[in-house]
Fold each of these.
Amino acid sequence: MPSGAGSHNPAGIGRSLPERGLLLLMVLVFLEGSVLPLGAASSPDIRHQENVDNHKAADPGHNFTKKAFPVLDLDYKHIQTPFEISLWVLLASLMKLGFHLIPRLSSIVPESCLLITVGLLVGGLIKLAGEQVPPVLDSRLFFLCLLPPIILDAGYFLPIRPFMENLGTILMFAVVGTLWNAFFIGGLLYAVCQIQPANPNPLHAMELLPCLLFGSIISAVDPVAVLAVFEEIHINELLHILVFGESLLNDAVTVVLYHLFEEFAGAGTVTVMDGVLGVISFLVVALGGVLVGAIYGILSAFTSRFTSHTRVIEPLFVFVYSYMAYLSAEMFHLSGIMALIACGAVMRPYVEANISHKSHTTIKYFLKMWSSVSETLIFIFLGVATVDGPHAWNWTFVTVTVILCLVARVIGVVGLTYVINQFRIVKLTTKDQFIIAYGGLRGAIAFSLGFLLDKNHFPMREMFLTAIITVVFFTVFVQGMTIKPLVELLAVKKKQEAKRSINEEIHTQFLDHLLTGIEDICGHYGHHHWKDKLNRFNKKYVKKCLIAGERSKEPQLIAFYHKMEMKQAIELVESGGGVKLPSAVPSTVSMQNIQPKKPPPAKPAERALPQLPKGREEEIRKILRSNLQRTRQRLRSYNRHTLVADPYEDGFGDLLLKKQRMIELEKKIKDMSNYLTVPAAPPDSPTMCRARLASDPQAYSMKQGSDGVPTIHVDLASPQSPDSVNLMDEFRQASQQQEKDEDQGLMMKPPSRPTGRRKPGETDADKDQQKLMRCLSDPGPSAEEDEDEDEPFLP
Amino acid sequence: MGSSSSNMNHIPNAQELMQETGFSAAHLLRLYERFEFLDRDGKGELSPDDFEAVRELALNPIGGRIIEAFFPQGQETVDFASFVRVLAHFRPNDPNRKDGAQQDQANSRTRKLKFAFQLYDQDRDGKISRNELLQVLRAMLGIQVTEEQLQSIAERAIQEADLDRDGAISFDEFKKSLEKVNIDHKMSVRFLK
């Protein structure tokens, strides 16, 4: 890999040059190769020739004798369409690869620009080769295949909280802003067209309605372009969600306006009645789209409740239901984008609670992959279509369009912000307004909508297309390239690293409750009040239906906590790879079932973990064990008692000591288990599980704790132990004593489960023990029988 | 506006209150009406029972603490001035207003955080101990969670926030752990503008 920014480094260049050369070669080969098949007409000839040759070569009188069996045949027609599609996708992906090999380029020029350029090149090459440029940006292909993955990706991973908090603002921009843009541009264009200079102008033929239609097509901010550009500038969450949300929600407006003007462009006039119908239609389109999406989302969530036995096809449900939501909405001419967003957003919390960890990863990566490929293809096709499409260049029209787009956007944003700021708590500053205005990029949706226009109704279609392409190019190239330096220049707040701490989560929830309470006291039914009501409704009814098993009762904080612990545990293990334990045995034993098959971090002394005390590693290992197998069981394996002791340990050496002792004990147990009548137990068996459990020093110390240490008791409310020093000594003594006792115990029978877990007062400890067994061993039910023979070692 | 101005006369020290808390006259009036609504026996003061009559507050996990926050140490009742002073914490922070030092304003970020902090810190020792954090967690998460999980979370939270390693969260540590959260947004009630 070439060194990132150090292209000045000769070694870096040296390394990247052969790679670059190779890549360019591959690209050229592919381009050349693609020119031939992508051309329409020539291929059948080849085959025909071949067949004729074969016949001629094999048998002169082919009518009478049988043909010689063709050993090698070329049948391109057979595979033409899939082959071409694959070739395009491959081209797109290679381009994406290529850009990142040239580090300087990709940091200056956004990817979308590069891709359009590539598209232009490919289109140009095809044209040069004399072939017919394939009509790749076919509207059906675009709307049915290329657009949905991008929108689904956006909708599924939409950050709900900031979206909902700013919903009013977003809607204002999306609806009112787009309407304003459409009418302003359309109206002024018409006015400009009517300007009659001395020489007659083809523009005079333009009527009002086509202008308005054109205005409505060009005024919508494009989600694909916004995503492509904003992804790279890492702007703060508020601005990102405002522009992005606007680009998503204005689809409804665009759909309505488009259909409205298209219908009536033929008729010539629009009455007030039509206007009213238009408004109603807007509401139907928008709300209908959301409703369709929500219904499919709930269906999908409900389905995912039952997929615990067929984990492999879980991602499929997510994709198929969402796609069907999109298609259903499109069928009724409702807003497909809003349906898709609603579907993704509604189903996500429930589906994520139901599906396995691997499915979650699969969904995430598939969505990212598809949307990435789609986006790349869209931009390349834009380039190709530019080369191809019939153009009618009209200087006045095009320049006026571009200028009007900019002006309308700026005026719209400024005006709307003035109104919106009256209602917002956190006002939008001038900088924010500038970025919002500047981020109003147009893209392929506008182009496709223009493409859909009927030539008969709109004789000016080519002119429209040319103007649309120009605007798209302008926004993507000029605005796309300059937005990053502008963001730096204006010192706009960047996206903060999203590592949410448990503190934030707790306090945010606390503040939510607080604010709800204050609102209730004031008698004001505000934002928090309704959110609280919705949460309560969700918890009481919806979660019970849509989430399988026990997870339906799991509060959000706990889910968050689990996720965080697991993430951290995995990071811990991955970063600790390569350090060998003194005895490899316990490591293999305990890490058998964990995905990253690396030895756990061995010597605490060598690793400087900023936040975790070393004693936590064992706990985290246990979390990994239980979580990664059956993630849905409530865990009882956390060792609360030592956690209580932990903060009072100031001795590093004590931790080290404990760790070593643990290792030794585990080793001992491994040896012990060989003496048992049961032959070498597979790691998953209950025996080994118990061995693992029992080997935890903390487990031992828990037992001891019930005797000697004052703090480890049921009354967990008072952990403040003044005698922390004594604690450590107790531990040391206790553990040493423990070892001796435990040896005997181990000789006699399988190591008993740690009784420390059985706190007085906890009646369901047995049940939890069983559950734990189920956690740790995949063959679940068999574990329960073994429980009966167990007796507590210490009462 | 005629009736409202006469109502304003009922409010004791209206002008001073407006000055101190930054509420406008209209807001003050609205709050006064609410105060009178809550004060069912017309004593001119509110007692904890009056607060508890607010139905939704009973469902709120920290409802009790919020009510307590209105009654500073030992007092049995709260008059309108104190009522307004507490609610002033939740006024949206107006960045354009430059009267007086920002820090002293009733609704500045620090004051808001201090208010929230005091809700955690019941014994007013200036620190959130593990015990206090546990109580809050227990209240919020209810019976759905096991003790061990609560302990674990409380432990984790303190570990993350506790920079000076004294086992409790001081106000500064509290502030620091919330530095990424937009408190002005989070702790403002739009009504009170």
Amino acid sequence: MPAPIRLRELIRTIRTARTQAEEREMIQKECAAIRSSFREEDNTYRCRNVAKLLYMHMLGYPAHFGQLECLKLIASQKFTDKRIGYLGAMLLLDERQDVHLLMTNCIKNDLNHSTQYVQGLALCTLGCMGSSEMCRDLAGEVEKLLKTSNSYLRKKAALCAVHVIRKVPELMEMFLPATKNLLSEKNHGVLHTSVVLLTEMCERSPDMLLHFRKLVPQLVRILKNLIMSGYSPEHDVSGISDPFLQVRILRLLRILGRSDDDSSEAMNDILAQVATNTETSKNVGNAILYETVLTIMDIKSESGLRVLAINILGRFLLNNDKNIRYVALTSLLKTVQTDHNAVQRHRSTIVDCLKDLDVSIKRRAMELSFALVNGNNIRGMMKELLYFLDSCDPEFKADCASGVFLAAEKYAPSKRWHIDTIMRVLTTAGSYVRDDSVPNLIQLITNSVEMHAYTVQRLYKALLDDISQQPLVQVSSWCIGEYGDLLVSGQCEEEEPIQVTEDEVLDVLEGLLVSNLSTPVTRGYSLTAIMKLSTRFSSVNRIKKVVSIYGSSIDVELQQRAVEYNALFKKYDHMRPALLERMPIMEKTASNGPTEIMQTNGETEPSVPDTKHLPLVTQPANQANDLLDLLGGNDVMPVIQTTLPTKPASAGGELLDLLGDLSLTGGPTVVPAPAPSVPVSQPPFLLDGLSSQPLFNDTSAAIPPMTAYSKNGLKIEFTFERANPNPNIAVITIHATNTTEADMTEFVFQAAVPKTFQLQLLSPSSNIVPALNQGSVTQVIRVLNPQKQQLRMRVKLTYTHKGSPVQDLAEVNNFPPQSWQ
Amino acid sequence: MQFMLLFSRQGKLRLQKWYVPLSDKERKKISRDLVQTILARKPKMCSFLEWRDLKIVYKRYASLYFCCAVEDQDNELITLEIIHRYVELLDKYFGSVCELDIIFNFEKAYFILDEFLLGGEAQETSKKNVLKAIEQADLLQEVCGLCPR
């Protein structure tokens, strides 16, 4: 059998292939030759063959038949074989396959080999791909090598130890003694890897962290030497001495100084020194500055140092290098919560970054801009952000629109400005607006009483222009339905009133019903709007006709509505005016801001009496003992519907359903409520990255939150607020999170309270609790406690987890006294 | 660092170093998707991007893209320096390195990488020491006789 062809020759040959098919043929031929060579157990050429196999593997061809051969190479005495063998193992084997365990013995032997380069190969392989079993078996050898005086091996052993700790955290303890004098090494390789090892240990164990805190002075000294020492050719990068080591030390200092005043103070000077003396003309200097800024912001540094750090970031923002700008925006995003004022100073630069060409920079600039919006800069910022919304890529539009709505809600200087801003978003990015914005906007419009005429007029005009953007169409049709009378009356204070007849309005609405552009939801809105106009317009006959036509619509939803409206005309005409009357002002639930929406606008508002929402329907209790036992039955006791007209709705639960089509506060008497569309009860994910809780939490600061339930990975926390103005009402927001790896779907939270209380449960934010704490479900509970008795609650949780339904009952007794006193 | 990929402008993989356990299929999928994403980026764009839940740092040197996936806490700017250091090492070793050198001597490229990084972290910050180690190892290979090529 002729000698197998050499590696280089194979590579050359394969590269001459002109088509994929030709290449495949060559590969197959060579693979066949290699396979027979393997079968013959040819020791001489095994190395060559495996090398060729690795090349073919890189091209994407299967090479699993070479796995065992790699193991044979590793076991060989020849260094060449071992080199290729270990490389092959790292490329072809992975810890999921049992085959890799066969390596363990070889590695063990090689770790004790007489040649350091063989030991190095073993350490490298173990440190790159060692499985937990291998790590367990070989940790002792690694620990031994960590104590050797050979710096070539010591540095590798340190990183290998890092890998072992990552795979088997329990083994961390055994490396502790060996770390004793790691930092006294002169060799930079050992120093660098030691710092990495110490960092890993401190990050994983608070005890280790405490133990290693005493190293801070030594680390500071090493860093100082690096900066002060003259030119050292071996470690120099563009005039900076060993930047890799500097960055790593800064990172370790960050971890050690976090939440510890003494350590933070000990590093103050060196941080200031690095921050001011590092050369910034090249990337490497900026890399060190970046790490320094991260450290300054994370430890308990004095304010002067923090300002210095933010100014560095500000300078970064002006740097020509977009990488630097990107990094600056990312860091500013992290610090905007804690050092808000300092970041505000750089606002104009940040806003300029909105015009950057790079997508990542634009996104960061957008997030940061929203974080910087406040009452003072709202007008200017909104102008920039709306301009951005116009011109940005579609992937940004949804987030930007949500951000604009949120900011407008919090800081709108006037009602008119607010409505105008909303109009602008709806007309420019209407199709990207999130579905839950529609109910939010409707509520906002409802509550801006004196702007109704202006709003409906503008929305009507927008509809005339364009009916393709569904959120806009939905809001518009709802408003026309509500305020159509204002529209035709020709009165508008804010701008020139338009002259429009009832028929024209009905034409537009009917147009929506038939248009192909309208979604079923939109059609539902239009039909209801038309119906509502029956009490506001005089052309009732026309409306009756439209409604009866849709009684035979194919769309079940429309059909149901039409049939019910028909019934309303025929049999319940006496109830029609009451049912279709103006919507009352809706209470905003669990808003982000510290105040109700009415108060954030710069105008006075009639305050909303909220006690009327509470004592609606209460069902008689039927148990002897305090805590109602109804959770064992079907429904939860006083779970009540809000914001519906107070006329008795006993005539038709389904009618209530109809008018609740906004799903603002969920379905009628039964919990769980269907669509999760409670007006913003938690920040949209846009700002989630910035803070894990709502920006302003002042109202609940007085009453500490509590964990009400924690079992099987489901944790439910209660946070409290006092509802203004009634001090007898406690507003509790539940936050349900899930630490397991599977989502909890169809999640339903039910609650019951003793007889002397009244309970109102609003819609949940969703009914899926995402896995691994990736999000939470929130729901608001209002408890009326006029007798100021101790609050107790029984909760029932049902959800589906990994396919099986789960149900649990629990009592919550640990309410803080402030919540019911 | 979770992995490092080197690929050409046509999307051909020249080197792949994985520091996290993934099956061959998963590696192929990740490589394919990531390579496509990066090749689609315009030249003026920033060297960093978020991809899936990873931070990607990449830089183009002549016809080769050097791409690393790093963790959240890692410093992107210093990762650029790591990439640059690796290129310098290759350059010193091969003498004005070009893509062909890496194609024909891919195993050497791996050996050099494995002397510079271990488990995703830099093990040696001195260029001289890395090259010295490679030189010695190469000598050892010569001395023991048979070579693969």
